[in-house]
Sequence to fold (207 residues):
Amino acid sequence: MVKYESIFISDPAATDDEVAALVKGFEESILAGSGKVLRVERWGKRRLAYRVGRHEDGNYTLLHIECPPGAARELERRYRMNDRIIKYLTVRLDRDLPEVPPVGAEPAAEQPARAAETE
Amino acid sequence: MDPRDRDRSKKKQFRKKFLFRKKKFCKFCEEKIPYIDYKDARLLQGFTPERGKIFPRRISGTCAKHQRELMQAIKRARNIALLPFTAD
Fold:
């Protein structure tokens, strides 16, 4: 079992219910992979630091999970297949994190930079 | 002007410039920040001046260990669109 921190950015046009459904789907996939979900944080809509595709804003959701690597891979596969998700990042947690307060909804003030493509 | 005089005044300038400079210190060591979180965009922003580049160690004074962690954090933050790759 490995601990991961996974963030995905979903389409800001998606409603709260839709995002909840997404999260539920991912939780189920992790459970199915004999892992567990430790924490779900909804950051809500934030301005992106640069344009991703045609999006200027994104709806951030953070998952803390503990699962075998295979389940994490499966989770990322699901991210990719879902067209509601515009970007994601999964990071392995090598040590226990201090309890960090959820990142506030403070907007990243500066102007969104030009579309920068990654990956 | 005697070339030696000029030399001396240069030396004086040099001392003025460098002798009384504020001592640099590593912010993370000082504040005992145990983990540089890539999600803390506000903290990281302090190390990415206007253009969005990573502030070099020789200027910011960050120690080697924390600069490595900082670099990692900034790159992650960029990936998830919390920080810009470039800004103009």
Summary: Chain B touches chain A at residues 34-35, 37-42, 52, 76, 78-88 (CB under 8 Å). The CA atoms of residues 2 and 28 of chain B lie 49 Å apart. Chain B has a mean pLDDT of 81. Chain B has one domain: 24-88.
